[in-house]
Known about the structure:
By secondary structure, the chain is α/β, with parallel strands linked by helices. The protein has 2 domains: 2-199, Rossmann fold, CATH 3.40.50.720; 216-457, Rossmann fold (3-Layer(aba) Sandwich), CATH 3.40.50.720. It has helices at 10-21, 33-40, 51-61, 70-74, 96-109, 128-141, 162-167, 179-188, 201-230, 237-245, 278-291, 297-321, 347-357, 371-376, 387-391, 404-408, 411-416, 449-454, and strands spanning 2-6, 25-29, 64-67, 79-82, 117-120, 149-152, 171-176, 195-199, 253-254, 257-258, 328-332, 361-365, 396-399, 422-425, 440-443. The strands form 3 sheets. It has an 8-stranded mixed beta sheet, with helices on both faces. Strands 12-11-13-14-15 form a 5-stranded parallel beta sheet. The chain is globular, with a radius of gyration of 24 Å. The N and C termini lie far apart (57 Å). Nicotinamide-adenine-dinucleotide binds next to helix 1 and helix 5.
Amino acid sequence: MIVTIVGTGYVGLVTGACLASRGHDVRCVDVSEDRIGLIRSGKAPFYEPGLEDILQRCQASGNLSVTTDLATAMRGSQISLIAVGTPGDGEHQDLSYLKTAAGQIGMNLKNASNYHVVTVKSTVVPGTTRNIVNALVEEKSGVKAGEFGLCMNPEFLREGSAVEDFMNPDRVVIGELDAKSGAVMEALYDSFDCEKLHVSLEEAELTKYASNALLATLISFANELAALCEATPGADVETVMDGLHLDHRLSPMADGKRIRPAILTYLRAGIGFGGSCLPKDVNALRTYARRNQVPAPLLDAVMATNARRPEQVAAMAEAALGGLAGKTVALLGLAFKAGTDDLRSSPAIAVLQSLIKRGAKVRTYDAFITRAAAAAAGLESFFAESMEAALEQADAALLTTVDSAFRQADWKRLLSRMRTPVLIDGRNVLRNVRLPEGARYYPIGQGGPLHEMERQWAV
Ligand SMILES: NC(=O)c1ccc[n+]([C@@H]2O[C@H](COP(=O)([O-])OP(=O)(O)OC[C@H]3O[C@@H](n4cnc5c(N)ncnc54)[C@H](O)[C@@H]3O)[C@@H](O)[C@H]2O)c1
């Protein structure tokens, strides 16, 4: 099948590369010349395991081409997937990229001789595909929907395992204007062995929000319990969560063995959720609810709990050091999770800002973040090249991601470089690691004297 992908970000490029590897003739388009130049040379513009290998293979085989010219990419194309960003600041979802892309596709459909299905892959609130994208395509093409197809196909991949997720989907959700549109989408995913759900455009749009809202809710639930445990001497959130997870409805037994579903990783305490999707999507859903006069107090609370968590973790550092004025904190982990270089809405950055507000000097280290990436996010002044450099003469280290390198690190050597060997574990990643004598280790979610002191530093 001839496929056009509009936008070569995490979703667009991974989708394009993976579909090309399944034998489709894929043309990826982006407005950024730099990005297209980089991809053409076989490089991915962001870190994603396995992606460059597929890009190089599929470009060499001729199954994947990249261009800034949509007209070239649309020639003879049977389906286009719009995968441009839909950023949001809480109140407002910016649909400008989506509208531009829809209008451009419409213009290119004016003289198309074959049936073509326009598909929205970006995350958008219910009604966007039918009312905004469709209207723009009709207006610019002069053709009525039905003569061209319309689908909404939400994407569930996770950054850091995007290729693996796309290649092995749990399901493909096909929101369709009509059966003819959906049949083309079904053919696109023919080689993917999973359930394919044919639903309305609005149901497809909502399914993506339902999925992310549930994940965000689980994280905030775990973090609210962590805060409760911190206020309860003798309580430990890890033990409470272990007990919760053993409910057979969460981790069933099969053939005498306990199955531990991946969803349980969202029921663990931490520093809050972030990234380009969860906060943006929960906020978009809240705004959609408000516009439709539907109360959504649960979603409001999920965001409120999430906003509090970085402050609570920064207050721990303040309590552990007896004040942060003039103290240096090494923040280990800066991206929104380990295994990605995405800094968008990272909760580690919220922790950093809270530490600075409290008077600390901060150095950051993240194995996945280059100096250039830190500079692009306005964080270069905090950047350290290595864990050693970040920890040099630091008063405390604060861990924010579940990076396995933290477990394997030589803490005896690392702690000896610090002014005081204080370790605040924002993700409880070192819980089972044997730390050298003298280390002052403070995991999250444990009631006790630190959290008694912490109250005076709460803001
Ligand atoms: N990142 C994720 O993990 C993820 C997962 C599932 C869904 N989503 C959703 O998918 C969408 C895309 O997310 P992303 O993270 O891949 O975005 P991104 O910001 O990484 O990439 C978007 C790309 O689109 C390009 N672009 C913008 N307008 C264009 C146009 N008119 N023509 C061609 N290219 C254009 C940009 O230059 C950019 O390269 C969003 O709606 C997001 O919510 C993201």
